[in-house]
Amino acid sequence: MIVSKSGGLIYNREFHTGLSKLTSNDYLILAGSFHGMHAITSQLSPAPRIPHITPQNNMLAPSPFPNRPTGIEVMESSHFRLQCFQTQTGTKFLLVTEPQQPNVDTMIKKVYELYADFVMKNPFYTVEMPIRCEKFDRGLDGFIKVRG
Amino acid sequence: MVLYSFYIFDRHTECIYSRRWTPRPTSSSGASTASKSTRPTSSASLTSTTTANNNDATSAPHKGLSHADDEKLIFGLVFSLRNMVTKLGGSDDTFLSYRTGEYKLHYYETPTRMKFVMLTDTKVPNLRQYLYQIWANLYVEYVVKNPLAPMEHPGGVGVSNELFERGLEAFLGAVLPA
């Protein structure tokens, strides 16, 4: 699932039918509510922020992105695991896997790469709109097949 | 391993017990925080608003939100996450925990819909077992079996008794080495 920065579902794809069947409307609702919960979790952070100043960082120009608290990264339930990756621009990538699936982190980064290559560089794609892009679909298919 | 806070919600969406351990004192806030962290403050939502305010002033983890607001937010969050999990995974699926870059939230729900929530740092394995034990060994023993405690606990009445508090402290001290 890919959720745009305003909380709309822009891409949704099922690979294995392990989870219960949901209508596309249900997915839209889920994406929207997840967007809200993500915002709340980043507000709730009980720990004081630790500034990430390391010797290497000092050499570089200050990052244009403030050190914001992150929202949900991983959510676990007894049947599945939901990994969330938020890009700097606020787009969220959600990946639902089995609880024991390894390397979900790298998988989600790879999906982001595919997204950057085939969706963002597509001149006919308008941002914040549902993704209809054959190459992205095929790229995902190939990537998942290699993995699974 | 750092414990941030612990909450119990009853089935009427009310927070009946909450307890916070002040985070490690930072260099900016002085001796007042340090003395506080040695003796964790606890409040059962109704009892003391003053300590809660004090806490806010010294260690304010997020601006503009009181602890009561926090409790409501956490309840709402856990409630909707639970609904989302049952929607995705089927009715026999249960929500266990989530992790952000800063903290991790552990969740346990009893068959009577009481919710036990604990916030810790991110490097902790799942605490569901421990939350279950808190319910079975401490809550049931000291709160449910207490003849003086009311059936329901509006505003946390009857939960924050001395035995429960001390038991909780001892249990957490024993199973979660700091």
Would you write up a description of this structure?
Chain A: Belongs to the TRAPP small subunits family. TRAPPC4 subfamily. Chain A: Part of the multisubunit transport protein particle (TRAPP) complex. Chain A: Keywords: Endoplasmic reticulum, ER-Golgi transport, Golgi apparatus, Transport. Chain A: This is Trafficking protein particle complex subunit. Chain A: One of its GO terms (cellular component) is TRAPP complex. The complex is a heterodimer of chains A (148) and B (178). Chain A has helices at 24-43, 55-59, 104-120, 134-147, and strands at residues 2-3, 9-11, 72-77, 81-86, 92-97. By secondary structure, chain A is of the alpha+beta class. Chain A has a single domain (2-45, 70-147), classed as Beta-Lactamase, CATH 3.30.450. In chain A, strand 1 and strand 2 (9-11) form a beta hairpin. The longest helix of chain A has 20 residues, at 24-43. Mean pLDDT of chain A is 78; it is low at 51-55. In chain B, helix 4 packs antiparallel against helix 5 (162-175). Helix content of chain B is 41%, strand content 19%. The model of chain B is unreliable at 24-62 (pLDDT under 50). Chain B is of the alpha+beta class. The chains are: A alpha+beta (148), B alpha+beta (178).
